[in-house]
Amino acid sequence: MTQEQLAGLLQLENKSSISKYESDKTTPTLEQFVCMAKAFCTSTDYILAGQIPERGAKLLQAEKILQSMTLDKTLDAAITILLALQTLE
């Protein structure tokens, strides 16, 4: 995502605000932190402190495993298993 795209997502006037965030010249609002976390599919904990919650770490591990599967039939089987496990929730 470019600075310009992120600025648009955060409803900022231009990308220079993102540059100021990156160089610690200014700080985003709490609402902007939440918006960034959603945009990057992560938690505010990670955005603010670089800490991935335990559940997030497990989800990242599962995602890496799924992305490493090269055969469609293997991926289909994994999805079938996940859907079956979801019914147990």
Output the keywords.
single chain; 89 residues; mainly alpha; 6 helices
Topology of helices and strands:
Elements: H1 3-9, H2 16-22, H3 30-39, H4 44-49, H5 54-68, H6 72-86
Summarize it.
With 89 residues, the chain is mainly α. It has 2 domains: 3-49, no CATH class; 54-86, no CATH class.
Q: What does this molecule look like?
A:
This protein has 89 residues and is mainly α. It folds into two domains: 3-49, no CATH class; 54-86, no CATH class. It has six helices and no strands. It has helices at residues 3-9, 16-22, 30-39, 44-49, 54-68, 72-86. Helix 1 packs across helix 2 (16-22). The chain starts with a helix and ends with a helix.
Give the overall silhouette.
Answer: elongated
Backbone structural class: mainly alpha
What multimeric state do the chains show? single chain
Question: Over the alpha carbons, how many angstroms does the gyration radius reach?
Answer: 18 Å
H/E element order: HHHHHH
